[in-house]
Design brief:
The structure holds two protein chains of two kinds.
Chain A (H helix, E strand, L loop, with lengths): L4 E3 L2 E4 L5 E6 L6 E8 L3 E9 L2 E5 L6 E5 L5 E5 L8 E11 L2 E6 L3 E5 L1
Parallel strand pairs in A: 2-11
Antiparallel strand pairs in A: 1-3, 3-8, 4-5, 4-9, 5-6, 7-8, 9-10, 9-11
Chain B lengths: L3 E4 L2 E5 L4 E7 L5 E7 L5 E8 L4 E4 L2 E6 L4 E6 L8 E8 L5 E3 L3 E6 L1
Parallel strand pairs in B: 2-11
Antiparallel strand pairs in B: 1-3, 3-8, 4-5, 4-9, 6-7, 7-8, 9-10, 9-11
The chains are: A mainly beta, B mainly beta.
Chain lengths: 114, 110
Amino acid sequence: KAGVTQTPRYLIKTRGQQVTLSCSPISGHRSVSWYQQTPGQGLQFLFEYFSETQRNKGNFPGRFSGRQFSNSRSEMNVSTLELGDSALYLCASSVLQGNQNTIYFGEGSWLTVV
Amino acid sequence: SQQGEEDPQALSIQEGENATMNCSYKTSINNLQWYRQNSGRGLVHLILIRSNEREKHSGRLRVTLDTSKKSSSLLITASRAADTASYFCATDKFGNQFYFGTGTSLTVIP
């Protein structure tokens, strides 16, 4: 079974631009969540989608948005990029089995804002 | 703010020694999980322990959970150079939103 796939793996953007990152979850996983990882802040939860609906949202400004498609693939978008948005963006998918929900991560998308 | 905090932040040991890292969290949880992250890569799931469990083993890994103290520990026995990575604990309350600790950076010296 293929793992979580994220594209692109690396990208460089300029301040003020916008970026879209893509995530394909593990087949059969309907929940997709996004995390931002920076050296100073660690792993921060961005949002979680389930069946095309945003179910949970972290404490990030409205410049950060996402969506999920009917095939469970997800995208996240960051508009008006700031230098502080430089980070590793991790996507994770999961399926609830009983009361156990193990999340599986992709390799991440490295975003550098210059 | 993050739910969990790992301790120590960094740990350096000789190959063959045991490594212990701790995680504390703030609120009641459903499950607690440990993940490993090699530099610049995604996180790899290691082990899950449910809130009604006290100890769990998986290969060279041993995890304990003390819900009264809101803490967990991860023990890696007979460490190897390949164990060099950052280790994170993650908690979930409702099964679909996870909070990660700040991580412990483990270096195993050959």
